[in-house]
């Protein structure tokens, strides 16, 4: 960080004397923000809490593969991570992001200031975000976005549940006139050292079209559509064949030896087909304004699971004599629409709105088998589905109230509202979960189906009221205060508050700080979620694991308790310097304490478990169990900084930005396992080594991003260098075998160059990870016998270099 400050400081010093920018021009360059405050005159520089603003040009120049909004944000935002999963069940198909190193469901996502619904699926097989139902950023087209505002501060009192780490607000495009078509094509061109081969794969094409038109004098409609085609990537190594699939290591006639030396596995991105649309609109009704916006997205993905060997209890050799690789299939349908009216009433500005959100995730598997059904088994299965519906209703009154004792009028916002949430699941086809006559593995390999015992319907009502006050108490002193009361039909009520302040002792120096308590109610998907998956058991044997809702007879027999809300205390302090001569600086330190954090329990398995649950509903054939708990208390300490510098150069603008983040999460306490679990295994830990690793060290605890860009009417370019800190992975393969490896720091360089021809044609050529960097090779204890050579959670991914060409035609 210090080196970056010196670099940018030197740039500023070299140009300060001949810069034409004035302080007034500098101040005007900071766009007004709408996130983290209800006042109408705040910028990211004078806000009482840190807010990053990224416009669509920055997001496009990120080179995000397939226009993924989550990946684009992770490239430009130093406090946001968006790990790519592989061989991770539903996490191959729905990816989750994390802010400030906290859980993906501890950040609230808004669209145009309205709460965004989460995915219906709980990612139970992922590492980062295991057990969370997070917002699927990639259901929102990149072309729909005007800018993204990231509030890095607790905001439960302002926005309600989930805003522990902060708030990400996606502001939709409101251009009333232009029309454009954008075609982007790219592919990975990389050398994979694990197999000593040059590869070209992951061919990706996106086609976007959008237009806008005016409605009346002040109204507009903006809408667009986007299509995506992406081929899979594969970075698997050569199979050495696990020793536990060989009867005799010295035998030469074992059919499983035929798999040796082949690339039998997949490690990389899934094949993806997607189509999405969006609109944003406002219509002037005279004294009132009607607004509406929405998104609709459909996506089909084809991921991978573990290879099944020719001689294997999970295989039927008559069907797959050479073994088989099940391919997991995900169908994701997502939609949201918001409608509202803004109107003056008795000196107040009234905003009344409603938002409906929906997500359905259906999953299954192809190239598979239910071995217990023998040769008559299907080889393709529908394994079940999850559905989430959310309806938000709210009304807000806002006005500025003069107060003689204050320097400025007080901005007052009062609001009430409700939210209705419903989660439901549906069973898979019977062949995907039922036991057949053969003494072999039960269920569809790669995606065991939901049985009737796993099906749930969960409903919740939420009712809330809030007040938000902000004003300049004295000329150098701003104060924001907010309070909120929420009542949940299932987990009770909560009261949250926040106070944030900014002191401005000098024109270009502001000192800010905040204190707030926030909360996160358990997601309805977490309350009702169940699945069946294959995991390692004793002696590395693969066994059937059931994730059960806490009200399930199996979970109840093991001591599961009803889920309650997470509760957090957030304290932050920082300063902003500038703007002067194009230079600005913000630094903020924070402490976030989260009590009763919701996690998935450690899996319990063994003969004692089978004996305890075998006769219960949903317990037949289950060899391993886990459920959700409020078992963990954590503390996160961190510091974040952003340095920005800009200067007019020729007929364009040169800009440099350095963002840094450092944070450290530690577990403060873990609840003792229920007596029922300790009766089965006296040393059982409710939260095991893998989940402790996930919370504390599995993701890098620091990140630095330096971006230099130049934009002129005819030419433009962006060069970005990113550094990601080290991360440690710990695995529990059963039988006390818990290998650990620390993966070192990683660096990545990206670049994009743009040429504009005439007034309506722009070409851009770019690449991410230009030096083709890969994470450290995994050790022999972790790479699953050579098959999975890289850590898929690495922030630079496992796909290597990506090159692309983008053409935009403005009509």
Report on the structure:
- A hairpin with a 2-residue loop joins strand 4 and strand 5 (114-115).
- By secondary structure, the chain is mainly beta.
- Helices cover 8% and strands 48% of the residues.
Low-confidence stretches: 1-25
Largest sheet: 22 strands, antiparallel, barrel
The rough form would be described as globular
**Which percent band covers the strand fraction?**
over 45%
Task: Write down how many β-strands occur, each being a DSSP E stretch of 2 or more residues.
Answer: 34
Rg is: 27 Å
Helix count? 10
Mean pLDDT: 92
Helix vs. strand class: mainly beta
Helix content: under 10%
Name the features.
811 residues, mainly beta, 22-stranded antiparallel barrel, 5-stranded mixed beta sheet, 10 helices
In short:
With 811 residues, the protein is mainly beta. Helix content is 8%, strand content 48%.
Write the layout of secondary structure elements.
Layout: H1 2-15, H2 23-28, E1 51-55, H3 56-60, H4 69-76, E2 80-81, E3 98-99, E4 107-111, E5 114-115, E6 145-151, H5 156-159, E7 166-172, E8 180-192, E9 197-215, E10 219-230, E11 271-284, E12 289-302, E13 327-345, E14 348-366, E15 381-401, E16 410-427, E17 457-474, E18 477-488, E19 492-506, E20 509-520, H6 524-528, E21 531-536, E22 542-548, H7 553-557, E23 566-580, E24 583-600, E25 604-605, H8 607-613, E26 624-649, E27 652-670, H9 675-680, H10 689-696, E28 702-711, E29 715-724, E30 727-730, E31 740-743, E32 746-757, E33 761-768, E34 802-810
Parallel strand pairs: 4-7, 22-26
Antiparallel strand pairs: 1-6, 2-3, 4-5, 6-7, 8-9, 8-34, 9-10, 10-11, 11-12, 12-13, 13-14, 14-15, 15-16, 16-17, 17-18, 18-19, 19-20, 20-23, 21-22, 23-24, 24-26, 25-26, 26-27, 27-28, 28-29, 29-32, 30-31, 32-33, 33-34
